[in-house]
Amino acid sequence: MSKINLTINGQPVEARAGMTILEAAESAGIEIPTFCHDPQLVGVGACRICVVEVEGGRGLPAACVAPAGDGMVINTESEKVVQARKANLSLLLANHPLDCLTCEKSGECKLQDYCYRYGVAETDYPGEVKEIPFEDSNPFYERDMNKCILCGKCSRVCFEVNGAGAIDYAYRGFKSTIAPAFEEPVENSPCVFCGMCVDLCPTGALNPKLSKGLGRAWEIDKVKTTCPYCGTGCNFYLEVKDDKIVGVTPDYDSPVNKGNLCVKGRFGWDFVDSPERLTKPLIKKEGKFVEASWEEALELVASKIKETVDKNGPEALAGLSSARVTNEENYLFQKLIRMLGSNNVDHCARL
Amino acid sequence: MTAKPKIIVGLGTCGIAAGGQDVYQAIEKALAENNIDAELTQTGCIGACENEVLVDIQKPGQPRITYGKVPPEEVGNVVTEHIVKDQISRDFVLGKIGEGDLPAEYEDIPVFFEELPFYQKQNRLCLRNCGFINPEIIDEYVAREGYEALKKVITTMKPEEVVEEVKKSGLRGRGGGGFPSGLKWEFTMKAEGDKKYIVCNADEGDPGAFMDRSILEGDPHSVLEGMAIAGYAVGADEGYIYCRAEYPLAVKRLKLAIEQAKEKNFLGNNILGADFNFDLKVKEGAGAFVCGEETALLMSIEGKRGMPRPRPPFPAQKGLFDKPTCLNNVETFGNVPVVFLKGADYFASIGTEGSKGTKVFALTGSINRTGLAEVPMGITIQEVVYDIAGGLPGDGEFKAVQVGGPSGGCIPKDLLHLPIDYDSLTDAGAMMGSGGLVIMGLDTCMVDIARYFLTFTQSESCGKCTPCREGTKRMLEILQRITTGEGEPEDIEKLKTLGDAISSTSLCGLGQTAPNPVLTTLRYFQDEYEKHIFDKRCPAGICVDLLIYAIDPELCDGCRRCVKACPVDAISGEKKEPHVIDTEACIKCGACLEKCKEEAIKLQS
Amino acid sequence: MIEENDFNYAAVDKIYENWKTQKGALIPMLQEIQHEFGYLPRPALEHLARRLRTPISQIYGVCTFYSQFHLKPRGEHIIRVCQGTACHVRGIAKIAMRLEEELEVEVGDTTEDMLFTYESVACVGCCGLAPVMMVDEATYGRLTPDRVPDILNEYQRGEGNDS
């Protein structure tokens, strides 16, 4: 791969040919604000917050899609650039509810961050605002399209990465929104609730329901872990506050799942502290489950196995294990059943 | 020379709208009733819109006589008199075209293109056949050197030579941007790809622009020929014409022309016996102005929302279905056969240093002669407005000309000397655009004009990028405030800031140029904005909310008509006494104005 | 509205079969579906999405992008009620109420017999005639609620547009 040399903010930068200006800047540790850009998605250059000034160029190109060229002299924070970013932030604010005090996204909202960075406290251009009904009919996430800044990452990840294509742009111009077909609730669409849209949303437009009210962004610690649901072994961060799980953040660096999750891993964490969770073995006595000790329970299982094998032969025995245990445990489990003389082994990893 | 008399009726969309079909039928009837053996045919637009319906009569051995504004009830007589008695109706005759003898008494009839002021300064290259041929008969195109250029290119030139010739001609895109066509062709030719496309942008959507429609309706084969030449040059075997669905006649004639060209092997496989295949399809738009932007147009052909995509990659590298694509507009392709028929040197000899050839303009607004004019690049605005369009009606005073539609700008009186070429117009804050010229007199409010164009672009914004989607909306809201008397002192600064941000950061040409109508009127007519904002006055008397309706007591005869007409009972007064309008209650609907026979009701700005 | 079971899927199939070899032909398909049904019925779009193996959300996105496409059936006649100031002051609201009663629809909708689509418009510019409504190209001014049924009647009898 050939190298190119350019100057960004006075600093000489060596980059790979074919890189965008954004990639070249990031490779040199220079941060450029973005809304619609995500490395796993095809670039669209829609939000225009990443515009930069290229010496001798016309207008302000979007760094996320403009190719870096050899010899380019780029300024990512020139006065012209800052003015343009302020104007575009001011425009976004004009059509965005300013309920940051109660917004779940506060503290990790890109719109908030950039308004802070460029000192845009309120809009200069008040006018008509969109009024799209709030949607919270599904159990996993809320959709408040009035907070949407139309970066389009949600619909792109849904189609490009997940393949569901549950949502897309609808209407055009100022009336544009992101919606499932016929603006039905998402649960009536092909949405599989992987939550990737929620994770990429730069504002509070898409919000995980279970985490609501459980803590502000700055109160939360993130603990990297492996998903316990199946043998795939997806990684993610558990969001923890006061030793309680309050949510899940994807780990885009995980070699296993590159940040992708399914509905169970993304939204199914509430069982951990569920009062309904089983913590002791139960044995059904006279039609009712009764708490028992591990010794009693294991003894009962052993005796039943022995009884079955003695009476009907080992083929009468079958073992079904859980997809929620590790591969190693599943290995041991099937070994146990086979040692008992049966090949009837299966497990529930049919996600 | 035709053996029998030939009658030609102008049946472009404008001719039809002016009653062309009725005229055509009236002629048919007259011919039948009087047993006249004549050929009756149709043609496209010759550009003199204000004279529609146009009827041409050509008798063998005589020049072709053009009549204008012929009503259906008169046309039978005109035709019969002309053909039977050799009498030319002085009421309707416009001019003569071509060689031949006329009775001495008609010697004074002006030579159409040379002596009519509307045509004197025109140079009809692209429109060479419009108004002459029947666009639905390929032989008529062929008879006027049609497909000669394609023949020459295919049989005597290598693709590189074709590209070189276009480069040498200096032809630039006629759709707005003005990118050198030869370079575009070269990029597409050199791009690697197993498949390449030629695409013609026929999505002419600017309000007030109809030059592409006239070419498609009047001379569709010239566009097909230009596209086929481009196909040969860049190595494409397939092309699309993306035509807006609002042009049904153009679509119909294009489809017919493609069929006829295939029959004659000007399109299809092994064209003219050479190892060159080229097929064309027509795609109809579905109602989105933004699809005139080249990448949005490609998205639309691909069956997607017409949302522009970032460039680079340019269509020449990665265009339709991700294949290298050469995309030009109707007028550009229409010029291509000219380049090869007359030679690149001839083409380059017309126009200015940076802008070669001619440009077709749609002349509308406050002028004496509306219509379609093809002028050499570099002609001044003054010449177009006064020499060709005949100036403003009555003693109207010129105020500004809006060039280039919603992407263009308003050019004031002191720039009348400005030559019309790509660079001069861009420097003045406007742009060539597709070529609409709206001439405006003193009774035009520049703030209102800016608001009008922004209403259009705002409703046509695709919504993809922030500055265009949100910014045009806010600019429009500010302009609406100003024109309704709610303007605030900081609004001018806000418009400038927003305009700059939208221009410099929008994704596509539509957004980048959307603020032009506002920025140019601010640049040349800021005082008008100030009068609206600070004095709450509209000097042109257009912005209704800023006007006051008042009754001149000297003129009012107290007839009470206005009192009855007022929907809100804002007018009072006894019979035969001067009436009074309560300006607080008045909703400025104008109902009283229509009813007053004494013209006593005045609008005060 | 058309029920899903008795929907004419064959018409959609025919259009699909006609175009399926041409790349990216969604828009002409939609144009032909609209030509066939007068609008874009939801079952047709869902069926087309299945045949094209394209997410229905994307097809919906295309349908709502282009102004030519209509997702609701349009009536034979379009009624436009003026919302201008003069009409407002002169009681267009009563006219609108009467229209809604007679037609049994709300703004933007079409009557069950598909005869009328009822829309509102910013101002038709005939303030002197307020209150005003238009049916197709014909303007009806100085309206009273009682005239509304008579006007509708003209169209129901297949006359109309003579005002």
Annotation keywords:
heterotrimer; A: 351 residues; alpha+beta; Ubiquitin-like (UB roll); N-terminal domain of TfIIb; 4-stranded mixed sheet; 3-stranded antiparallel sheet; 19% strand; elongated; B: 605 residues; alpha/beta; Glutaredoxin; Rossmann fold; 5-stranded mixed sheet; 24 helices; 18 strands
Descriptive account of the structure:
The complex is a heterotrimer of chains A (351), B (605) and C (163). Chain A has 351 residues and is α+β, with helices and mostly antiparallel strands. In chain A, 24% of the residues lie in helices and 19% in strands. Chain A has helices at residues 21-27, 79-94, 110-118, 153-162, 196-200, 263-267, 294-312, 327-339, and strands at residues 3-8, 11-16, 53-54, 73-75, 141-143, 167-170, 177-180, 206-208, 221-226, 235-241, 244-250, 282-285, 288-291, 319-321, 345-347. In chain A, β10 (235-241) and β11 form a beta hairpin. Chain B contains 24 helices and 18 strands. In chain B, the strands form five sheets. Chain B has a five-stranded mixed β-sheet with strand order 2-1-3-4-5. In chain B, strands 11-10-14-12-13 form a five-stranded mixed β-sheet. A four-stranded parallel β-sheet of chain B has the order 8-7-6-9, sandwiched between helices. In chain B, β3 and β4 form a beta hairpin. The longest helix of chain B is centred in the last third of the chain and has 19 residues, at 516-534. Chain B is globular and about 85 Å long. Chain C is of the alpha+beta class and 163 residues long. Helices cover 44% and strands 11% of the residues of chain C. Chain C contains seven helices and four strands; from the N terminus they run ααααβααβββα. A four-stranded mixed β-sheet of chain C has the order 2-1-3-4, covered by helices on one side. In chain C, α1 (9-19) runs antiparallel to α2 and α1 (9-19) crosses α3 (42-52). The longest helix of chain C has 12 residues, at 26-37. Chain C starts with 8 loop residues before the first helix and ends in a 7-residue tail after the last helix. The mean pLDDT of chain C is 87. Chains A and B meet through α2 of A and α18, α19 and α20 of B.
